[in-house]
Amino acid sequence: MEIWQTILQARQELNKSKGTTVITIGNFDGVHRGHQQIMRQTVELARQHDSLAVVLTFKAHSDGLVGEQPLLLNTPSLRQGLLAREGIDRLLEVEFDRNFAALEAEVFFQTWIEEGLHAKGLVVGYDFRFGAGRRGDYQLLKSLGKEQRIQIEQVSPVYEAGELISSSKIRQLLAEGQTDLANRMLGYAFAIEGKVIEGEQLGRKLGFPTANVYLEPQYLLPCYGVYLVRLIEDTRSFFGVANVGIKPTFGKYLPLVEVYLFDVEVNLYGHFVQIEFLKFIRPENRFSGPEALKGQIARDVAAAKGYLDQMFS
Fold it and tell me: Residue 67's pLDDT is what?
């Protein structure tokens, strides 16, 4: 999957190759199963038209301009990898600024969809809105598409356990420690990415050396507590337990992710890692002291290994 940084870059490539596109548009934070259905339909329609399957998305969530910026489920690299896995050919990432938000729906359709991206088709979700004041809807798209002979398709919502799958619902579930349902809605294990930083060696003193992972504050951390996780570093992966929280036993109050790896000790300082959250074990607690915490960590490790055995049995 190639990435276009501007609409000008996209237009230049398409003009040069005389190419056409089938597009979908959205934030696609999480690239959950509802988004995946949109991607599949976009790719299928693109193949029918002998066109590139293109995602038009934003470098920062569009809600941040008109309301409160949500904590994001995916880093840019995670989102890009998930979209590539769905078969998307090109990703156009642009700034969602006031000028973009002020474009009238018809102007956006003409300058971006028709002229900029040479669209043969456009696939949107059930709740898609566009243009200034979010005035544009599916009916307007159908009308504009008919005029310009651009095929417009709308994808129905997707449900899990009777619940509508959405990025906001997944954020809520992760904040409540409902990792199992959140992961089913995502269609993969929720993950964070970050660099391993040097900590205070508190885990090592307890006999459980940990990799401490820094996450930038705009990204979502799941509910504070202990999880069965898989840590991925380049081509290597390891299972372990992660504590997400603030170390209340030691009077530390900055959010941190600490990962203890099972049956292996590797030096990951300075390495960029991905952590998949497989199972919520318990909420974060404050303990009377280091020995009480050490005993609880041993029980957490045993519980996590039990869940791991069930997963592979």
Answer: 61
pLDDT of res. 208: 66
- Alpha carbons 307 and 305: distance in angstroms, whole number: 5
Place 250 in a pLDDT band, splitting at 50, 70 and 90. Answer: very low
Distance CA 225, CA 40 (A): 35
Tokens 């989102």 — which residue? 79
CATH of the domain at 123: 3.40.50.620
- Asked whether 86 and 40 are in contact (CB, 8 A), the reply is yes
Provide the token pair at 170.
């997944």
C-alpha distances out from residue 127 to 20, 154, 158, 166, Å = 25, 9, 12, 11
Q: Do 153 and 258 fall within a single domain? A: no
SS (H, E, C) 173-223: HHHCCCHHHHHHHHCCCCEEEEEEECCCCHHHHCCCCCEEEECCCCECCCC
SS3 content of the chain, % helix, strand, coil (to 5): 35, 30, 35
Pair of tokens at residue 280: 């919520």
Quote the CA–CA distance of 117 and 9 in Å, as a whole number.
10
Residue among 104, 87, 93, 77 nearest 25 (CA)? 93
pLDDT in the model for residue 200 = 61
Q: What is the mean pLDDT of residues 186-202?
A: 85
The 3-state DSSP class for residue 41 equals helix
Specify the residue for token string 């310009």.
148
Which residue is listed with tokens 């156009």?
A: 92
SS3 307: helix
274 and 194 in one domain? yes
Q: Which structural domain, as residue segments, surrounds residue 39? A: 2-160
- Give the global pTM: 0.90
